[in-house]
Amino acid sequence: MQPDLRLDQQLCFALYAASRATTSTYRTALADIGLTYPQYLVMLTLWEQDGVTVSELGERLHLDSGTLSPLLGRLEAGGLVSRSRSAQDARLVRVSLTPAGSALRADAEAVHCALLERIDMEPEELLTLRTLARKLIDSIEANSE
To answer: Does residue 43 form part of some domain?
Structure first.
């Protein structure tokens, strides 16, 4: 069987276009609360579990330290997070929310709710889509080792 190389038949293109549309929508809404989309992802992680190490953040967000360090620097300069070396192991740098970073969560919740209203999909469809996307990530990561 010949592979179907038409653009609209490519999973990679559908994922790429969906990702661009999603991040573009978030980018506009997040600008109102002073965050970029990557900064929002860092903040989501910290609102879920404060005080994680930089390496834990990188692993969770699938980002290398070269990408994550400047991102954290901007969040720190904006007064939303602080970084500190671990007393037990100076190689570990912990990232913690500041009071301003914690307070920003309420604004982010409002942004999230407003954006969900713009997506014309049922909650079950969104759950299925997220589950399948995670399955795809896990499959690709498992087969690339």
So the answer is: yes
